[in-house]
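Record filed below.
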Amino acid sequence: MSADMNHGEVTAGESGPELRQQATNILQRLVGRDDVDFHQGQYEAIEALVAHQRRALVVQRTGWGKSAVYFVSSLLLRARGAGPTLIISPLLALMRDQVAAAERAGVRAQAINSANATEWGEVSRRIDADEVDVLLVSPERLNNPSFRENQLPSLLSRMGLLVVDEAHCVSDWGHDFRPDYRRIRDLIARLPGNVPVLATTATANARVVTDIEEQLAVGGAEVFTLRGPLARQSLRLGVLSLPSPASQLGWLVEHLNTLQGSGIIYTLTVSAAEDVTQMLRGAGYQVMSYTGRTDPAERERAEQALKDNEVKALVATSALGMGFDKPDLGFVVHLGAPSSPVAYYQQVGRAGRATDSADVLLLPGPGDRDIWRYFATASMPSETSAQAVLEALGEAGGALSVPALEVRVNIKRTPLELLLKVLAVDGAVERVQGGWRSTGVPWVYDGERYARVAKARVDEQNAMLDYEHTSGCRMEFLAKALDDPTAQPCGRCDNCAGRWYQTSVGNTGQDAAKAGLSRVGTVIDPRKIYPTGVDRLGVDVKGKIPAGVQAEEGRALARLTDLGWGGRLRAIFEDPSWQDAPMEEDMLRACVTVLSQWGWAERPVGVVAMPSRTRPQLVRSLAAGLAGLGRLVDLGDLEYVGSGPKQGPGGNSAYRFADVHGHIGIPASMTQAVANAPGPLLLVDDLTDSRWSLTEAAAVLRSGGAPAVLPFTLAVAG
C-alpha cells in the first residue's frame, strides 16, 4: 500500500466517525480481512497521534497489536502529506519481523542497521525520493556520525511520526536498559511541535511508566498514556524446583515432548545454552542454540526453523527476546530464572499469542543469584573508570578509536564501549569520525542514582524469588509486579489448578543428563596478533605474532559457565573460602579424558607448569598428575622474571600483554630439557581468561627450542 493511495484527505484536528472509518479501512487492508475491527484502545491511540499530534505511551501485553497502531497511523499521516515514520527498534530480529510484516501489509518499510550495510545507499536514495513509509533504525544508529550528520537532519525536517518500540529500554529501571535509548529524549526535543510521538512496550511497571512519560514530555508536552490489562489468559504457568542441574536436564530429556508444539528453552549463559543443545541433540531432539555467540546468519536460520516448526525448540539466552514473533509458540521453559518478574514476563510473553493455551515452566537453578549479581552491576560505570576515560580523551586533544583508548585506560573492550555510551548520553563525550572525543562538558559521577538502581535490582531479584515460592496465583503475581490494577487469579497456573507438568525424573533422563554433564573439553584458540598500540605501554611489538613463537590450539577441562564441570570449577576460582590444595582424583581423570580426545598432530613428550602465586599446589599437582598418567616427562615449573607480572586477572588485552611480556622465563635447570625436547610440550595452568600468559609462556618455550607448545588449563573464564 503506497503512500499516495486514496484513503481520503485527513486534516489536522480531524476526528470522529470519518477518521475512524478511514483507520478501519486501512486496518482491514493491512490484515486482509473486511470483518476485523480495532481492539480496545487501539483506535484511541491512533486518534491521539493522527488527529491531535500527541505524544503517547502505550503499555499493552504482547499480541495486543501495538504495531497496528503505528502502521495505521503512519499511512493516515502519509495520506495527508507527512513524511516517513521513524521507528527506533532494539533488535535485528525485531526489525526483520517488522519489515516483513510491513511489506505483507503493503507498507513500504526499510531498515538501516549493522546487518545490511551494503543496502544503506539504496535505502537513502529511496528516502530522498519519498519512496519509504517507515524507516527502522536501532538506537545505536542515532549516535553513528554518518547517520547523525547526513541522514537524520533531513528526516527530522519532514518526519511524520516517531515511534519508540520496546520503550522500557529508555528507563534505568527497565529490565533491559540500553544507554543509547537515552538519546531519544534529545531526539524528541529536536522535533517540530506538530510531530506525534508513540512509545510502546509490553513490560513496564509504574516506575518505568513514569520515567518514560518524563522523557516523552520534554519541552512541556502532555503525554497520553494508554495502559491495558497485562495478564495473558493463554499462558499456563508453573515452577518446578529440582535439586541439581542433572535433574533439570534429566527432566528436559524425559518430558520435553510432553510440551505442546515448538518453543523456547531459555538459559542464563551462553555456555549453558550450548551444553543443553548438545545434550538434547544427543537424546534425539531437534533443537538449535541461539546466543550472543551465534553467527547472525545462523541466528536468522534458527528463527525461521522455529517459526516453521522444523525444530522442537531453540535453546536461547536473552539474545532471543523482544520482537521475536511466532504467534503459535507452544511453550517457554527457563533453566534458571531471569533476575526480575518483569524480565520473566517479557520472555514468557513470546508464547501463546495466537493460541488458546501455551505452557510456561520455570526450573530455578542453584547458581541463579551469582549470575544475577554479575549482570546487576555490569551496566553501571565506576567513577574511577569514567574519570580515566575522560582524562585520556582530554589529553589526546582529538578523537581516539576504542583500540587506541584501550592502551590508555585498563578497561576491557565491552565495558569500555558501554562506558563510552553512558558518558556520551550524559554529554561528556561524543562519537565522531575516527572514534570518540571529549566535549569538555563537566561530568559528575551520580553515585546516588546508581545506588538507587542497584537497590532496585536487588529488590527485583528478591521479587523473583518470591515468585518462585508463592502459593498464590502466578499470573496475578506477574501482573501485580507490572502494577496492573486489573490483576486477578488466572485459574490455570499450578497454584490455581494444580500441577499440570510431570515432576519425576526417571533413570532415562538421569543417565542422559549425567552423560551430558560429564562431557569434558573446550578449545583454547591461540593468540595470533599482538594488541594494538602496546608500544605506548613500553612493548615494542605489533602486528602478527611470528608463527615460530605461537602456541598451538589448546584445551581446557571446561568453561566456568558450563553446566557440568563449571560448577565444580566455580567453587575453586570464585569462592573466596577455597583453600589451595592438590586437585581431586576425579577431576584429574577428567583432564586425562580431555587429553585422550584431543586429536593433536603430534603427542606431547613433556609437561611444563606455569608459575602460580595463588594456587601453586593445584597447578603443580595437575602437571605432575598428567605427566604420571600420560607417561610424559615432568620438566617442572617456569619462573617469573624480576618481580613478575603485577596486574593479575582482569583488565584489557593491551595491559594484560604488557604486564606479562618479558616477565616469564625458563629456569636454568630446565633450559637444556626444553632445547632438546623431541616433540611438543604440554603447558599447564589452572585458569585462562585473556590467554596472554599462555601466549607469552609459549613464546618463551618456543624461543628456548621447544618445537611446539600445547596449552592446557582446568578452566576458561566466561
About this structure: The CA atoms of residues 94 and 324 lie 6 Å apart. The first strand starts at residue 55 and ends at 59. Residues 1-13 have pLDDT under 50 and may be disordered.
